[in-house]
Automatic annotation (TrEMBL):
<dbReference type="InterPro" id="IPR000008">
    <property type="entry name" value="C2_dom"/>
</dbReference>
<dbReference type="InterPro" id="IPR035892">
    <property type="entry name" value="C2_domain_sf"/>
</dbReference>
<dbReference type="Pfam" id="PF00168">
    <property type="entry name" value="C2"/>
</dbReference>
<dbReference type="InterPro" id="IPR036465">
    <property type="entry name" value="vWFA_dom_sf"/>
</dbReference>
<dbReference type="InterPro" id="IPR037768">
    <property type="entry name" value="C2B_Copine"/>
</dbReference>
<keyword id="KW-0479">Metal-binding</keyword>
<keyword id="KW-0106">Calcium</keyword>
<dbReference type="GO" id="GO:0005886">
    <property type="term" value="C:plasma membrane"/>
</dbReference>
<feature type="domain" description="C2">
    <location>
        <begin position="121"/>
        <end position="238"/>
    </location>
</feature>
<feature type="domain" description="C2">
    <location>
        <begin position="1"/>
        <end position="118"/>
    </location>
</feature>
<dbReference type="InterPro" id="IPR002035">
    <property type="entry name" value="VWF_A"/>
</dbReference>
<dbReference type="GO" id="GO:0071277">
    <property type="term" value="P:cellular response to calcium ion"/>
</dbReference>
<keyword id="KW-0677">Repeat</keyword>
<feature type="domain" description="VWFA">
    <location>
        <begin position="261"/>
        <end position="460"/>
    </location>
</feature>
<dbReference type="InterPro" id="IPR045052">
    <property type="entry name" value="Copine"/>
</dbReference>
<comment type="similarity">
    <text>Belongs to the copine family.</text>
</comment>
<dbReference type="InterPro" id="IPR010734">
    <property type="entry name" value="Copine_C"/>
</dbReference>
């Protein structure tokens, strides 16, 4: 890893293979070649291309694409597959184009192995979209409820309008609490409309010859989750029956899904100003984002590449919240404490905007409670030396911390856990306290004089950067440096949680 004042860069090698390509040739199979495009100033430019492999619909290319990976940038890539005729020149006809896919380099680094369907122009799926899927179920925990189960599985695709479409129904396996259903083939279009993130609702039933099947449990999955098995991971889902979960204390699930998530916490203390006032840092302008949204989007668009399900928990602090309007320093901004996650960064933005009219900005700006809580979460994943997951707390604040002593104590304790803290100063307030927490001018110590085990805090003032493209490198380069103290950059795929902590103080 090379680090400098403004860049964090590492070399990345990409290898490409394809499966079930379209067969464009009449007499022979297609002669595919992959062209790698990069986006430069909004324009797609060819960077490199693979060799041509003759008459092959499942090519594994020997060409290695070598790229510089800048952790702080969103590097958009496009892979285009062409059928080459005679020469190595790329044809311009539609029938020469076998399909393409877009992603970011950060997504590839985070996933290590990326599998995506090729799309033709206008978004039509390219190639033979048949995949094979197999399921098994362990319902031993339900043996007292279903002593002689005849289970079968139904998979439904959840459409954009919320309706459900049956994709597949397995065979019934008689008298078996641990069925292994026969693998089945289904097109990717039928399974998920070629959308890897589309939710699939899966229901497990106990067959009844009269048609009155007993409900065993359900789980939700995505095609992206299924692809993890190709990397040698064990993919599991909870098969839950809400009825028995409520009634029986000893009811257990039948499996565990281990995924990463992104936490977003927003500071709603009053020093930020009334959001109805144009001078407020939280002012909702219908024509442009406020300072908090600019910072949130700038960092979120970078960090979201390292989250597998793109569902981000969004939290707030320092506000009076309904229904009793008591001050809270840890609340879900979607007001759903059982599920504080939002769909993507845009979901966080929408939750933030919907939340503002419903709360009263208050105070004080106490940061230590959230640091202590997240340190406990990180402690559950092991200490700094052997943790398999890493946590990031990103604080977006106007700079006025009212529990400075407790915050210093909390940071010292957190320095022993797999946790880093990045503070983004929003507005023109005095950020002296934040610079002290940064520790660049000396080792940060608790009020009792105990030093931090390692420097886990980095402060970046948003006002010092004119554009988001300049701001993002400063934040994410700091993040990269924190990782490199204990892990190589390639370990980013094990990033567990990123917490965005944003402040909402009142206009004074």
């Amino acid at each position: 890893i090379l680090t400098g004042p403004a860049t964090c860069v590492t070399k990345v090698e990409l290898r490409v293979s394809c499966k079930a390509l379209l067969d464009r040739d009449t007499l022979n199979k297609s002669d595919p070649c992959v062209v790698l495009m990069v986006q430069n100033n909004g324009q797609w430019v060819e960077l490199d291309r693979t060799e041509v492999i003759k008459s092959n619909l499942h090519p594994v290319f020997g060409k290695v694409f070598c790229l510089d990976y800048y952790f702080e940038e969103v590097q958009k890539l496009r892979f285009e597959v062409y059928d080459i005729h005679g020469t190595h020149s790329i044809g311009t006809r539609d029938d020469d184009f076998l399909g393409g896919m877009e992603c970011t380099l950060g997504q590839i680094v985070a996933q290590k192995k990326m599998v995506k369907p090729l799309l033709l122009k206008y978004g039509k799926y390219a190639g033979k979209s048949t995949i094979t899927v197999g399921f098994s179920l362990c319902v031993c925990d339900l043996s007292d409820l279903f002593s002689k189960s005849d289970p079968f599985l139904e998979i439904f695709r959840i459409n954009d309008d919320g309706t459900e479409q049956l994709v597949h129904r397995t065979e019934v396996i008689k008298n078996n609490l641990n069925p292994v259903w026969e693998p089945f083939k289904v097109s990717l279009m039928s399974l998920c409309s070629c959308n890897e993130e589309r939710k699939l609702k899966c229901l497990v039933w106990d067959y009844d010859s009269r048609g009155k099947h007993d409900f065993i449990g359900e789980f939700f999955a995505t095609f992206r989750e299924m692809q993890k098995i190709s990397s040698g991971n064990k993919v599991l889902w909870d098969c839950m029956n809400p009825k028995y979960k409520q009634k029986k204390r000893n009811y257990k699930n039948s499996g565990v899904v281990i995924l990463t998530d992104l936490k977003v916490a927003i500071d709603f203390t009053a020093s930020n100003g009334d959001p109805r006032n144009s001078c407020s840092l939280h002012y909702i302008n219908p024509y442009q984002p406020n300072e908090y949204l600019k910072a949130l989007i700038a960092v979120g668009e970078i960090c979201q590449d390292y989250d597998s399900d793109k569902r981000f928990s969004a939290l707030g602090f320092g506000a009076r919240i309904p229904p009793n309007y008591e001050v809270s320093h840890d609340f879900a901004i979607n007001f759903n404490p059982d599920d504080d996650e939002c769909e993507g960064i845009q979901g966080v933005v929408e939750a933030y905007q919907n939340c503002l009219p419903k709360i009263q900005l208050y105070g004080p700006t106490n940061v230590s409670p959230i640091i202590n809580r997240l340190a406990k979460v990180a402690a559950g994943d092991g200490n700094i030396k052997d943790a398999s997951r890493y946590h990031i707390l990103l604080i977006l604040t106007d700079g006025v911390v009212t529990d400075m002593a407790d915050t210093r104590e909390a940071i010292v304790r957190a320095s022993y856990q797999p946790l880093s803290i990045i503070i983004v100063g929003v507005g023109n307030a005095d950020f002296t306290d934040m610079q002290i927490l940064d520790g660049d001018d000396g080792v940060l110590r608790s009020p009792k004089g105990e030093p931090v085990l390692r420097d886990i805090v980095q402060f970046v003032p948003f006002r010092d950067f004119k554009t988001v493209s300049v701001f993002s490198p400063s934040v994410t380069c700091s993040l990269s440096i924190h990782f490199s103290t204990s892990w190589h950059l390639t370990a980013l795929k094990q990033l567990n949680r990123i917490f965005f902590l944003m402040q909402y103080p009142q206009l004074v």
